[in-house]
Design a protein that fits this description.
Number of strands: 32
Distance between the termini: 71 Å
Radius of gyration: 34 Å
Strand content: 15-25%
Largest sheet: 4 strands, parallel
Oligomer: single chain
Shape: globular
Helix content: 25-40%
Structural class: alpha+beta
Strand order of the largest sheet: 2-1-24-25
Length: about 775
C-alpha cells in the first residue's frame, strides 16, 4: 500500500496585481518536492486555496470602488489561471476559499469552542489602531511602528475588543519548538516573541492610600537601588494617583502618548515624562519613590509599571539624569561604591543592600525573591512578552463573530445548528473610523433574538481578522466538503499533520504562531490527535529586482505570463530553481531564463538518436554518479545545485554521444525520470517519444550503486624523496611493479645521477622514490 505525503504551500491572498515571478518561486519549490515524493511511491496531497477575507482584500476593493466579494472573485479567477500555468500537481477538487460560508462555518465553530472554554473574551482596552485602515491591529501586525498592510504609523485607541487567550498556551508553544524540523531562525523568532523571563512580582504601597502598584522585574537583585517608579500612560491608576496640581499636565501627556506607536515609544532616545505628584514606598528600605508616567513603559508588557533602578538600567539612567532623580548603585564590580558616569549593567558584588551586602549579584537574584515571599511583599514568577491576541476588527470584509448580546442573558454564543452566521450583502462597506464595524448600521441583520431567553438581542458587529481562516485551513483540505465535522478522524489520520510546509519567513510570528495555537486547542478538545501542524517548514527567499523587493510602486515587478508564452513553463520553473539557493533572496536577471531555455534544448539533443544498444561502462558510471548527485542535492533541498548538476552532466553526456553516436535507452529513461520533477512537460513528452505508455510519475526514482560509481583509473603524484616531481595515470587494479616502473619512466630525467634507495607505493594515491 502506498504511503501518504502532505505538501502544502502557504495559500495566497488573491491581490489585484496577480502573481509575479517572486510568488512563483515558492510554488515551484513545493511542486518539485511533491513530484519528487510521488516518484518515491507516495500518494500526494498538494492542494491550493484562497486566503481571501481581511484587510488587504477590502482595502483593494475600496481603492477599486468595487464590492470586495466581486473584486475578490475576479482576483481569484486570475490567480487560478496563473497558478495553472505553473503546471503544479494541485488537486483543484480540494480547493478552499476562506470567504465561502461552507468554510467559515467551521472558522466560527472554532471561535465558539474557544468561547465555551474561556479562551475568547471581550474587553475594552487600548489597542494598536491604524488611522488609515480604520481598524484595530494585533501586536504582530505592527512592524516598526507601522501597520504592516498600509504602512501608516499605528496609534493607540480604546476600543471594545474580542481577545483570544493565546497566553494560556505560551509555555507549550515554547516547549514544543524544540521538536520541529524548522529553520532555527524561525524558532528563535517565535521564542523571542513569546519572551519567557524569570523574576519577581513585587507590591509597592502608595503613600497615604490603600492602593498598591504591582511590578514585575527580572532584576530583583537591584530592588534596593530603586529610586522612582514609572507607569505606562494607560495604567489604570494614573488618574487616581495624579494630584490636582499635576492632573492637567498628566492628561495632556496621556493623550500625546496615545498617538504614538509602541515601537516609536520604545526607541525614542529622548525620554519624556510627567510626575504624578504621588509616592510609592520601596518595600525593602521604606524609601519614598516618586511616581512618574512615561511612554517608554508599555501597558501590555508585564504589569504596565516598572521600578526604576537608574544605576543599573540604561533607560532609567537617562530618565534620572534628565529629571534630576537620585541614582543609587547597589552592585559594583569589586564591592566598592563609586559615582557612576553610566549605568553599570554587569554582574558584580552587592552594595547599599543591607544584609545582602558583599553577596554576588547572581546569588542575590535568587535570594531576594525568597526574602520577598517570606515577608509577604512579593513572589517569584515567570513572565511572558506574548500578549493575548486582539482578535476583532472594525471592518466589513471578515467572518462575523458568532456572538449575540442580550440585555438579560449577557454574551451568548450562536447555537451551532445556526452556523454559519453569514456576512450580509451590503452596498456601503467602507470603514466608519468610529470603532464600530459597518455591520452595526444594518438594523435588520443586527437585531435578532436571544437563543437563551428568546428576548430581543443584538448580533456582534465586529468581524474576525484575516488570520482566523488561515489558522486552521490546512485541516480542511483533506475533505473540504464535509458538512458534518471540521475534519473526519479517517482523513486526519490519513494525511495530517502536514509533512512539508513552504512559505515566506515573514509569517514567523503571525500565521505560524497562530496556527500552532489553534492546533493545540483543537488537540485539547479532541478534534485532532497531534499538537503541531507542520512537521517540516521551508522558508523560501524573495526574488528581488534592481536590489529591491518586487512591488508595483517600485515599478520592478516581473510577470510570469509573457515569459511562459515565450519560453514555456518548464524553462521558467527551472530558472526559478537555478536563480540561487532557495532559502536565500535572489536577484532576478531577465537574461537568465535565456540560458535555461538553451539548456533544455541542449538536453533534448541527447534523445535525437536513440537505440537499443547496451549501456557502456563509461556511461553507466556517469549515470550512477548523476543519480547520486541529483538525489543528495534534492534531499538537502539544494535545488539550484540540482539544476547546475543537470547542466554539468548533460554536457558530459553530449561529449560521449559525439564519440559513440548515441546514448543507450536505459540511461535516457533514467535521465527523463530525474528531470521530471523540475520540468514535467518536457519529461512527459520525452517519455512518450521513448515509447513508454505508462505515466512517468508512476515510475520509481532511480537508485545509485556506489560500486558502479567507482573510477577504474586515477591520476597519482610521483615524488622524489618527498618532493613532487610528476604525475602518472594508472589503472586502479594495476599491479605495484607496473605502477613503479611507470613512475620511474615518467621522472627518469630527474633521476639521472641519483641512486634509488627505496620505492614506496601508497595504493591509488602516491609513488615516492627515495633517491640520493
Amino acid at each position: 500500500m502506498k504511503k501518504n505525503y502532505y505538501c502544502l504551500d502557504m495559500f495566497p491572498y488573491p491581490s489585484g496585481n496577480g502573481l509575479h515571478v517572486g510568488h512563483w518561486r515558492g510554488y515551484v519549490l513545493s511542486d518539485v518536492w511533491s513530484r519528487y515524493q510521488m516518484l518515491h511511491g507516495y500518494n500526494i496531497l498538494h492542494p491550493m486555496g484562497w486566503d481571501a477575507f481581511g484587510l488587504p482584500a477590502e482595502n483593494y476593493a475600496i481603492a477599486q470602488k468595487k464590492h470586495p466579494a466581486i473584486s475578490t472573485a475576479h482576483n481569484i479567477e486570475n490567480f487560478k489561471r496563473q497558478l495553472k500555468e505553473i503546471n503544479a500537481v494541485y488537486d483543484w477538487d480540494k480547493e478552499i476559499n476562506t470567504t465561502d460560508p461552507k468554510y467559515y462555518k467551521w472558522t466560527q465553530w472554532i471561535f465558539l469552542k474557544m468561547f465555551e472554554h474561556g479562551l475568547a473574551y471581550e474587553k475594552e482596552m487600548p489597542i494598536n489602531w491604524c488611522p488609515s485602515c480604520k481598524t484595530g491591529l494585533a501586536n504582530e501586525e505592527v512592524k516598526d511602528g507601522q501597520c504592516d498592510r498600509c504602512g501608516t504609523v499605528a496609534t493607540k485607541k480604546n476600543v471594545r475588543q474580542w481577545m483570544l487567550k493565546i497566553t494560556e498556551y505560551a509555555q507549550r508553544l515554547l516547549d514544543d519548538l524544540s521538536g520541529l524540523d524548522w529553520p532555527e531562525k524561525v524558532k528563535k523568532m517565535q521564542s523571542d516573541w513569546i519572551g519567557k523571563s524569570f523574576g519577581a512580582e513585587i507590591d509597592f504601597e502608595v503613600e497615604g492610600t490603600d492602593k498598591k502598584i504591582k511590578v514585575f522585574t527580572t532584576r530583583p537583585d537591584t530592588l534596593y537601588g530603586s529610586t522612582f517608579m514609572v507607569l505606562a500612560p494607560e495604567h489604570e491608576l494614573v488618574s487616581e494617583l495624579a494630584t490636582k496640581e499635576q492632573l492637567p499636565e498628566v492628561e495632556k501627556y496621556v493623550f500625546d502618548a496615545s498617538t504614538k506607536s509602541a515601537v516609536n515609544r520604545m526607541t525614542e532616545k529622548d525620554k519624556t515624562g510627567v510626575f504624578l505628584g504621588s509616592y510609592a514606598i520601596n518595600p525593602l528600605n521604606n524609601e519614598k519613590l516618586p511616581i512618574w508616567i512615561s511612554d517608554y513603559v508599555l501597558s501590555d508588557y508585564g504589569t504596565g509599571a516598572i521600578m526604576c533602578v537608574p544605576a543599573h538600567d540604561e533607560r532609567d539612567f537617562a530618565f534620572a539624569k534628565k529629571f534630576n532623580l537620585p541614582i543609587v548603585p547597589v552592585i559594583s564590580k569589586d564591592g566598592n561604591v563609586v559615582e557612576l558616569e553610566e549605568a553599570f549593567t554587569e554582574e558584580g558584588i552587592m552594595v547599599n543592600s543591607q544584609s545582602f551586602n558583599g553577596m554576588k549579584s547572581a546569588e542575590a537574584k535568587l535570594k531576594i525573591p525568597d526574602y520577598l515571599e517570606e515577608h509577604g511583599i512579593g513572589k517569584k514568577t515567570v513572565n511572558y512578552k506574548l500578549r493575548d491576541w486582539v482578535f476583532s476588527r472594525q471592518r466589513y470584509w471578515g467572518e462575523p463573530i458568532p456572538i449575540i448580546h442580550c440585555s438579560k442573558c449577557g454574551i451568548v454564543g450562536v447555537p451551532e445548528e445556526e452556523l454559519p452566521v453569514e456576512l450580509p450583502d451590503v452596498t456601503s462597506y467602507e470603514p466608519t473610523g468610529t470603532g464600530e464595524s459597518p455591520l452595526a448600521a444594518i438594523d435588520e441583520w443586527v437585531n435578532t433574538t436571544c437563543p437563551k431567553c428568546g428576548g430581543p438581542a443584538k448580533r456582534e458587529t465586529n468581524t474576525m481578522p484575516q488570520w482566523a481562516g488561515s489558522s486552521w485551513y490546512f485541516l480542511r483540505y483533506p475533505n473540504p466538503n464535509n458538512d458534518k465535522e471540521l475534519i473526519s478522524k479517517e482523513d486526519m489520520k490519513k494525511w495530517l499533520p502536514v509533512d512539508m510546509y513552504v512559505g515566506g519567513i515573514e509569517h514567523a510570528v503571525l500565521h505560524l504562531l497562530y496556527a500552532r495555537f489553534y492546533t493545540k486547542f483543537l488537540y485539547d478538545i479532541g478534534v485532532v490527535d497531534f499538537v503541531e501542524p507542520f512537521t517540516r517548514l521551508f522558508n523560501q527567499g524573495m526574488v528581488t529586482k534592481n536590489g529591491a523587493k518586487m512591488s508595483k510602486s517600485k515599478g520592478n515587478v516581473v510577470s510570469p505570463d509573457e515569459l511562459v508564452k515565450k519560453y514555456g513553463c518548464d524553462a521558467l520553473r527551472i530558472y526559478e530553481l537555478f536563480i540561487g539557493p532557495p532559502e536565500l533572496d535572489s536577484e532576478w536577471d531577465d537574461r537568465g531564463i535565456e540560458g535555461v531555455h538553451r539548456f533544455l534544448n541542449k538536453f533534448k539533443r541527447l534523445f535525437e538518436n536513440t537505440n537499443q544498444k547496451a549501456q557502456t561502462k563509461e556511461v553507466e558510471k556517469l549515470c550512477h554518479k548523476m543519480i547520486y548527485d541529483i538525489t543528495t542535492r534534492m534531499e538537502s533541498f539544494s535545488l539550484n545545485t540540482v539544476v547546475s548538476g543537470f547542466m554539468e552532466y548533460t554536457n558530459k553526456l553530449l561529449d560521449i554521444q559525439k564519440s559513440i553516436g548515441s546514448i543507450d535507452k536505459t540511461t535516457l529513461k533514467t535521465l527523463t525520470i530525474l528531470l521530471a520533477p523540475l520540468a514535467p512537460d518536457t519529461a512527459k513528452d520525452i517519455w512518450v517519444n521513448l515509447g513508454q505508455t505508462s505515466d512517468i510519475f508512476e515510475q520509481e526514482w532511480p537508485k545509485y550503486d556506489l560500486e558502479k560509481m567507482k573510477d577504474d583509473t586515477a591520476e597519482i603524484v610521483v615524488q622524489i624523496s618527498g618532493k613532487v616531481s610528476g604525475k602518472i595515470n594508472i589503472n586502479l587494479d594495476e599491479d605495484e611493479k607496473s605502477i613503479l616502473d611507470k613512475a620511474k619512466k615518467a621522472i627518469e630525467n630527474k633521476l639521472l645521477g641519483k641512486k634509488i634507495l627505496k620505492e614506496i607505493y601508497v595504493k591509488g594515491r602516491i609513488v615516492n622514490i627515495v633517491a640520493k
